[in-house]
Amino acid sequence: MTGDFGLMKQIHKAIMVFLSCALSVVGYAADNEIYLDQSGATANIDIEQLGSGNLIGGLLSVPATLTPLDLDGSTMILDINMIGSTNKFLGDIWADSFTGDYNFTGSSNIFTIQVDPANTYGADSSNQQVDVTGGSNTFVLNQGTTALAATLDLDWIIQGSNNTITSNINIDGATNYVDIDGSDNTLTYTGTGVTASAGGYFYLDQTGGSRTFNIQQLSTLDNDWLKITSIGSSGTLCVIQNDQGTSLGC
User: Fold this and answer.
1) Per-position b or e across 208-240, b if 16+ CB within 10 A of its CB
2) Helices and strands: H and E segment counts in the chain
3) Cβ of 48: how many Cβ atoms within 10 Å?
4) How far apart are the first and last CA of the chain?
5) Is residue 227 part of a domain?
6) What CA–CA distance (Å, rounded) separates 179 from 204?
7) Which domain range does residue 34 map to?
8) For residue 16, is it within any domain?
9) pLDDT per position in the chain (250 positions), as tens?
10) Cα separation of 168 and 151, whole Å?
11) Contact of 144 with 119, CB cutoff 8 Å
């Protein structure tokens, strides 16, 4: 294999995988692509990509027209490690009792994931953690947008500057913890809920200047809780808690 390695680095690579139980994939060099379509319960998936310009496909992908990352089932475990810059992790996850661990090291990466947007499985009992070390990354995580993310436990650990985090969750007893260490970071969170058990807990622990935070908790039939600990100079903080009133905005 060593004699062919120089040639392999010049070849645009795509890995296509169809799963039913467990998978571990490691990609090296630049411009790797993974196409992943999983259907069935209790899958345990571990993916690692190292280098720049890599892509785990989904949400209409590109460059070479991939799609999906599409995971359908319950009681799944997904472990993603992307080490490098300008990488993309995009896709749809349709799962109950889902565990996701996403680790990013590097800059200018893009993460866009939606979990059970059409209420196929309910998006309940998920435990997800996003760990980021680096700057100028963009992260979007939407959970149960027309379903209920019951008992969701979502943690963000962000170390770096100029990162953008956006999260929209249809909460039902959800807990969100966000730890941001760095300057010029932007956080946008919207938690909606329409059931009597919809109350959400949101805790933001942040250090760094020139930050922008927009936090909305919109449970209509239950209480929401918010805790913010922030250290740093300059920036904008907008918080709206609304249980059926008319907001004036910030």
Assistant:
1) beebebbbbbbbeebebebeeeeeeeebeeeee
2) 1, 21
3) 15
4) 60
5) yes
6) 6
7) 2-241
8) yes
9) 544 444 333 333 333 443 434 444 544 444 788 888 888 888 899 999 999 999 887 766 666 677 767 788 778 889 999 999 999 998 888 777 889 999 999 999 999 988 876 655 556 778 999 999 999 999 999 887 655 666 789 999 999 999 999 998 887 778 899 999 999 999 999 988 766 556 788 999 999 999 999 999 887 777 889 999 999 999 999 999 886 666 667 7
10) 15
11) yes
d(CA 110, CA 90): 8
| pTM of the predicted structure, to 2 decimals | 0.81
What is the domain count for the chain?
1
Q: Among 169, 187, 177, which Cα is nearest to 237's?
A: 187
CA dihedral sign of residues 57, 213, 223, 101: positive
CA dihedral 172, 173, 174, 177 (to 10 degrees): 150
Would you tell me how many other CB atoms lie within 10 Å of the CB of residue 4? 9
Q: What share of the chain is helix, strand, coil (3-state, %, to 5)?
A: 5, 55, 40
Q: What is the DSSP pairing of strand 127-133 with strand 149-150? A: unpaired
What residues are paired with 202 via a beta bridge? 176, 226
Tokens linked to 134: 């680096």
113 located within any domain:
yes
| Integer angstrom CA distances of residue 200 from 4, 187, 195, 220, 224 | 54, 17, 11, 11, 5
CA distance to 54, 161, 228, per residue, from 136 (Å): 16, 7, 23
Q: Is residue 138 part of a domain?
A: yes
